[in-house]
User: Fold this.
Amino acid sequence: MAFESLSERLNKAIKNISGQGKLTEKNMNDMLKEVRMSLLEADVNYGVVKEFVENVKQKALGQEVLDSLNPGQMVVKIVHDELQALLGESDAKLHFKKQGITNIMMVGLQGTGKTTASAKIARFAKDKLKKRVLLAACDVIRPAAIEQLQTLGKSIDVEVFSLGAQTDAVTTAKKALEYAKEHQKDLVIYDTAGRLHIDEQLMDELKEMKEIVQPDDILLTVDAMTGQDIVTVAREFNEQLAITGLVVTKMDGDARGGGLLSVRSITDVPVMFVSNGEKVDDLEEFHPDRMADRILGMGDIMTFVEQAQEKIDMEVQKRAVQRMNEGIFTFNDLLDQFGQVKKMGSMQKMLNMIPGMGKISGKIDDEQVNGSVKKSEAIIQSMTPYEREHPSCLKASRKSRIAKGAGVKVMDVNRLISQVEQMQTLMKMMKSGSGVPNMNMLQGMQKGGGAYGASKHAGSKKKKKSKSKKNKK
Assistant:
């Protein structure tokens, strides 16, 4: 994940000063040396690093900080504020017209995910902002881009305007705008052609298109994996076209993130969106304060809640809560919960957004989690409707049939049954008013795998007691 290494290094540097009585020139210099190295290793521009460290040092060595009872917390706040200043003091928003059609030009080099980003922003505007959107396929250099945009448009129920690869991009853009006026569209997003590098022909075409459509926003897509090249590309496009914002793609990769930290302060072009996956809903509005929180391992609970509200089926959740209140939990409930978790996406990303869970997220293997969920789903889907709703009916012959149907071992079926039995026990205890089970009960469940394991664990204790009584006799 982007910023993972930087986050670890910064937290280590700040932790070293947390145990100090107060901030001094010496312990500050030791910490700032570590901060400087962590930023440089994350591929942050050298000039940006130098200014950042100097700003932190000046603020941290002020008299009001020297007298602080908790220097560690004070340093965290100062570093957080400086990170936010680098990323942008406030959120950058799209510039929508109050009346008429808003036009957005998507520009960028080839391979930065521009076509996918166009569809993602179209979905965002349609679903969240309730805009009537038209996608214009102006990348006529790469015919596959037109097909890709049409496929993406169909998947999000957004109309795509195209005159084919034979018509030039500028004419396509002009006709798309006329079509949008005729069909009462609010927003037109123009997916333009990219090149492997910035050239005069590309810029001339984009300038001509800009003159015709008069865009309210020109968004540049940049690949987070390219590091400092983000700054170079952004600067050149900005000089030629006066871009209004950046869309940073591939944030879910192992990018070090330095380019993202450098670009705002050097080019003064804000980041508007970050793309963190290949699905059309893997797009986030960029919030500098939340990104600073994530980098410092503070999580991002606001984004987590927003994504949960957007992706989770609230009707399914209401039904689940109602059944739990009644002390009911079956394989159908478990299957519903698997579906909800899958909608939220990467478990690792989810944990990173929850304060204090950053370290645990590094130990989570998303592929392993997804494999385990798929296996459990296959087991449940191999059951009859009656078996799913009545787990207690599952005896040896039924288990064997289910295991064969799912292509797993009987022990895998037993393990899943134990999980459901464990949840049933918890639901019944909470319904009866006996509250949360005690630690011994939970340990028994964990050792034995569910309620079955708890009874087994309790049984083994009884056997031990009887044996000790015999020994005494």
